[in-house]
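[Meeting: bench + compute handoff]

Bench side (C.D.) handed over the final construct sequence. Compute side (W.E.) agreed to return the predicted structure before the next meeting so the bench team could plan truncations. Sequence as handed over:
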Amino acid sequence: EYATITPRITYDSEGNLEGTLNTRFGLTRVPENGDFIFSRDFVTGTGTITAFVYLDTNGNMQYDEGTDEPIPDANVRAPQNGGNVRTNEEGIALFSRLRPNLVTDIFVEQGSLEDPYWIQAREGVSIMPRTGTNVRVNIPVHVAGEIDGTVYVENMGGNSQGLRGATVALYDEDGELQQETTADSDGFYILSLIPPGTYSLLV
C-alpha cells in the first residue's frame, strides 16, 4: 500500500554473496493539513487527485476545524480515470497514476456513507489531471431531511378524504424542480433525502 519493495540476492562462483533491497514509492503532500501520503505508485509523469470528504455540519460548504468532521471509509469514485478509493481516517482518498488530460468525474458513492441521511452536497465535479500535479477536491456531505404529509379534500360537511394520485412537487428558491412524488390511496406522500435549504411545496 505504501511502497513497493523488491529484494535481490546474488551469489557468484567465487563465493561472494550480495543482497540488495530496492524501494519504490511516491510522496504527495496533502494541502488541507500539510501531511504527506506515501503511495507505492510514482506521482511524477502522471496525475494525482486528493479528495477530502467531510461532514459539513453548518452547511457553509467549507471545512471548519473543530466543527466539521472528516468522514473515513467513504468510497470515492473516479469512473473515467482512477476507479474507486476509500477515504482514510482523515477523510482523504488519494488517486494516483491518473492519465494526464483525461477528464474524470469525482463523487462519493451514496451507499458507502455510514448514515443513510448523509448526502453529498454537490452532484460531483469533473477534474482533468495534469502531469506531476496534485489536484485537491473538497467534498462536503450534508445531513438530509425529509418531508411527509397528507393531501386531502374537505367537503361542505367538514369531512375530509385523502386525495389519491395527487402530485406533490418540491421547488428550490430558484424555482427549479428538485423532487416530485404521487400521493398514495390515503393521500399520504413522502419526499426523502432533501438537502438543507428553503423550498416551496406545490400540489
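W.E. noted at the follow-up: DSSP finds no helices and 20 strands in the chain. C.D. will use this when planning the next construct.
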